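S.,

Sequence below, as promised.
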Amino acid sequence: MDTKAGEKKLSLKDRYRHLTRGLGWDTTYQSMDEVFPYDRYEGIKIHDWEKWEDPFRLTMDAYWKYQAEKERKLYAILDAFNQSNGHLNVTDARYLNAIKLFFTAIPPLEYMAHRGFSMAGRQFRGVGPRVACQMQSLDEIRHAQTQIHTASNYNKYYNGMHAFVHQLPRMWYMSVPKSFFDDAITAGPFEWMIAIGFSFEYVLTNLLFVPFMSGAAYNGDLGTMTFGFSAQSDEARHMTLGLECIKFMLEQDPDNLPIVQRWIDKWTWRGTRVLALVAMMMDYMLPKRVMSWKEAWEIYFEQNGGALFKDLARYGVKVPDCAAQAAVEKEHVSHQLWAAVYQWNFGTMFHTWIPQPEELDWLSAKYPNTFDKYYRPRWELWADMAKGGRRHLNTGLAQLCQVCQFPMIFTEPDNPGKLCHREVDYKGEKYHFCSAHCRHIFDHEPEKYIQAWLPMPQLLQGNSGGGGVAEWQAWVHMVPGKDNMDFEGSEDQKNFALWKGMATSNG
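The prediction came back faster than expected:
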């Protein structure tokens, strides 16, 4: 009796082709342009969608197998960390404020990314990018879920993490990352891919999920470190997707180059502005620091990003104009932003503090050209004022940039002693910007940015819970004295010391 020969197993390439290209079809009773109206309105010309290549060739069946194993390991570590009161093993209770900022900002952005990739995938008439967007959409909602799961344990014990859903659209410093995603999700599908797949994934998450998560590990936060590195394994695929989209557009038609270059310029700067929050976390909010923001920027943007732009140069892509200013600002942004939140900490959902003398020495060593000259004298003065009962507090409201929505706290690139301020008149109204790059972005799309919801003007107009700061605090679900103000003497500091003592004593 003859043995029936088994069917030849498909190669990964053939399997991917059958599960993607084989599922596509051209519409008949409605034109393709009517069914997919948005993949052309940005001006991008695509001649052959079949040229799209996913280096990972990831399909749904493979995705679930791969991610299920990863999730089992992740949740096993998180549950063990929580059950063993791992929150008491962090270096110092001050560290908890860094993760407060992380956990209130990042999970909502992950969910917005999930929505955005679902929407972008629907708008591509090519099956290849459609499937790739579907995979990333699933990644993003998983990231949101794992981060919320991790934050839920800290939320049992510490203040300031109970209302991130309300804080994202209402808290003044949260409007910085929110405006980034609002800007991206209201763009076309190709610009979305550059904004998130390239700028956010390549420029931002490398600097967030690698050095900051290393900082979490260094400070004893096994839970945050675990989900961070789990997410980073997905980010490698996301970076590849963003880069593939750029190459695909540039290989399809030479007319795409100026459009792509403008997007790269815009979103690199917008990503750089958002990263100021990460810079502050790395230089000031980690009790034990892995590296300075300046060092991280040089490694992950100047070196790694420089190699990327050398690769893209063969397509005609140039290094973004903003790179020169970012290279100068790496010396300053973390110090300027921490000084801002220190004096405005009545309006933050985390505590602030003056760096200890040994921390000032560390900053002096990491920033030898700038810190002692511009910033150390300020901290020493404010420390003396606090000791004398005259703690420096700014009860005024800051003017916000119309584009990035940061307070106007950053200085001129060539003069660290002078605040940078640009403005423009448009349709009888005056608009203000924190940099020439933000103003340039506005100039290209003014009708988009005049609609920005800026927290400070809205507060003054009575649209933020009422007409004053107390009403605003209630509106953002802040408990004054518990969620905000100085770390020294805070409830979090006292509880951490009490619980730590109980965990290490025999009494």
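Residues 127-157 form the longest helix (31 residues).

Coffee later?
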